[in-house]
C-alpha cells in the first residue's frame, strides 16, 4: 500500500483552526445579540399586554367594580395616589429584571462555551506544534542516520572491492578486514540504538535485577569504548571505588554507561579532552558521574537533552556525531529501573556532567526481581 503525503495539508490546518475560532466567536456574538433582542421584544410584548389590561381595568372600574375585585383579575394593576388604575411599578421592574436575567444567563453560557472552545483549540494547537517539531526532528534524524549508514557502507564496499579486484598482500588484507569489522560494529551499534529506542518507547522491556559490583561494570564498559576514545584522542579514566554495589539489570547498566561514555567522547572529540567516570554513595542510592571537558550545553539545551532525536547545536551547526537516541535510551532505562538521570553544564565549551542514580544493593542479597513495563 502506498501512502500519499500532501505537504500542504499541515499548512492548511492552522488557517482552518483560526477560521473555526473566528466563526465560533462571531456565531456566539450573534447568538447573544439575538437573545438580547428576543428578551427586549418579549418584555415590550408583555408590557403592551399590561397596558391593554390597564385600559380594561379602567373600563371595569367605570362600571362600578371595586378596586379589590379588579386587582384579583389583574394582579399587575394597582391604583395610584389619585385613584387612577395603572401598571404596578413592581410589575415593570419584574419585567426588566427578567430581561436582564435572561441576557445574563446567555452571557455566562456563551462565555463558558467560548472558554471551552478556546481551551480545546489551544490544546489542539499545542499538539500540532509538538507534532510538527517531532516530525522535524524525525526528518533530521533520518537524514543524519542515512548519512551515518552510508559512510561505513561505502567503506565496506571499498574494502571488499579492494580484496576482490587487487588481491592485496596478507598484511594489507588484514588491515582491510579489521576496517570492515570496525564498520560492521559501527552499523551494528546504530541499528541496536534504533531498536532499543523503539522497544523502550513502547515500554516492552523486562529487566532482571541483581547485585552488581559497580567498579567491575564500569571497567568492563570503559574497556569496550577505549578504542573509540583513543581514535578521537580522548583520555578515558575510571575512578570508581571498590565495594560499591547496585541493584539493577546488568544489560541495562551496560547500556546506560556505554551511551553516556559514547556521548561524552563525542562531546570531547574535537578538542581531544578528558572523560572521567566516578561514583559515590548517598542515602538515595549510588550516583555514577560521567564528567567531560567538551562542548557543554546551554540551559535551554539542557531541558531538551534527553528528548528523542535531540542533538546539541555547537556553534553554527548541529553536532554531526550520534543519532540523537543515546540519551533518550538512558532516560527510558533509568525510568524503568526506578532510578534517576540528570545533566549539568556551566555553558557551551565548559564541559558537562551526567549523573545516574541506581538503588543501592542491600547486604549480599542477590535478586532475580523482574521489572517490566
Topology:
Blueprint: H1 8-62, H2 67-73, E1 77-79, E2 85-87, H3 89-165, H4 170-202, E3 206-213, H5 214-231, E4 235-239, E5 245-248, H6 250-268, E6 274-282, E7 285-292, H7 299-304, E8 313-314, E9 317-318, H8 326-336, E10 340-344, E11 352-358, E12 369-372
General description of the model:
- This protein is of the alpha+beta class and 373 residues long.
- The chain has three domains: 9-136; 144-201, Helix Hairpins (Orthogonal Bundle); 209-363, Heat Shock Protein 90.
- Helices cover 61% and strands 16% of the residues.
- The protein has helices at 8-62, 67-73, 89-165, 170-202, 214-231, 250-268, 299-304, 326-336; strands at 77-79, 85-87, 206-213, 235-239, 245-248, 274-282, 285-292, 313-314, 317-318, 340-344, 352-358, 369-372.
- Strands 4-6-7-11-10 form a five-stranded mixed β-sheet.
- A hairpin with a 2-residue loop joins strand 8 and strand 9.
- Mean pLDDT is 81; it is low at 1-8, 315-320 and 364-373.
Quick gist of this model?
The chain is of the alpha+beta class and 373 residues long. The protein has eight helices and twelve strands. The strands form four sheets. It has a five-stranded mixed β-sheet with strand order 4-6-7-11-10. A three-stranded antiparallel β-sheet has the order 5-3-12.
Amino acid at each position: 500500500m502506498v501512502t500519499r503525503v500532501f505537504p500542504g495539508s499541515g499548512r492548511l490546518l492552522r488557517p482552518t483552526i483560526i477560521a473555526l475560532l473566528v466563526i465560533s466567536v462571531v456565531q456566539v456574538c450573534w447568538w447573544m445579540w439575538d437573545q438580547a433582542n428576543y428578551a427586549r421584544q418579549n418584555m415590550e410584548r408583555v408590557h403592551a399586554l399590561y397596558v391593554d389590561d390597564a385600559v380594561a381595568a379602567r373600563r371595569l372600574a367605570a362600571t362600578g367594580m371595586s378596586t379589590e375585585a379588579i386587582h384579583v383579575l389583574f394582579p399587575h394593576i394597582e391604583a395610584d395616589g389619585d385613584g387612577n388604575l395603572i401598571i404596578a411599578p413592581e410589575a415593570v421592574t419584574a419585567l426588566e429584571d427578567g430581561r436582564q436575567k435572561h441576557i445574563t444567563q446567555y452571557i455566562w453560557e456563551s462565555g463558558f462555551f467560548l472558554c471551552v472552545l478556546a481551551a480545546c483549540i489551544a490544546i489542539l494547537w499545542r499538539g500540532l506544534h509538538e507534532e510538527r517539531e517531532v516530525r522535524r526532528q524525525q526528518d533530521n534524524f533520518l537524514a543524519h542516520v542515512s548519512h551515518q549508514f552510508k559512510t561505513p557502507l561505502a567503506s565496506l564496499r571499498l574494502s571488499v572491492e579492494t580484496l576482490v579486484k587487487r588481491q592485496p598482500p596478507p598484511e594489507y588484507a588484514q588491515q582491510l578486514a579489521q576496517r570492515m569489522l570496525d564498520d560492521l560494529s559501527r552499523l551494528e551499534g546504530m541499528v541496536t540504538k534504533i531498536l532499543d529506542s523503539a522497544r523502550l518507547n513502547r515500554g516492552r522491556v523486562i529487566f532482571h535485577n541483581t547485585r552488581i559490583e559497580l567498579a567491575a561494570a564500569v571497567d568492563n564498559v570503559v574497556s569496550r569504548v577505549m578504542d573509540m576514545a583513543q581514535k578521537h584522542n580522548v583520555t578515558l579514566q575510571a575512578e570508581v571505588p571498590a565495594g560499591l554495589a547496585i541493584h539493577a539489570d546488568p544489560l541495562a547498566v551496560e547500556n546506560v554507561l556505554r551511551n553516556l561514555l559514547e556521548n561524552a567522547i563525542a562531546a570531547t572529540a574535537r578538542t581531544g579532552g578528558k572523560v572521567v567516570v566516578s561514583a559515590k554513595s548517598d542515602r538515595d542510592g549510588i550516583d555514577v558521574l560521567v564528567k567531560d571537558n567538551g562542548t557543554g550545553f546551554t540551559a535551554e539545551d539542557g531541558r531538551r537533552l534527553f528528548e528523542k532525536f535531540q542533538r546539541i547545536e555547537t556553534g553554527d551547526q548541529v553536532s554531526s556525531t550520534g543519532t540523537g537516541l543515546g540519551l533518550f535510551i538512558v532516560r527510558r532505562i533509568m525510568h524503568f529501573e526506578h532510578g534517576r538521570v540528570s545533566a549539568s553544564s556551566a555553558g557551551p565549551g565548559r564541559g558537562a556532567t551526567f549523573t545516574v542514580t541506581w538503588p543501592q544493593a542491600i547486604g549480599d542479597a542477590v535478586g532475580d526481581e523482574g521489572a517490566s513495563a
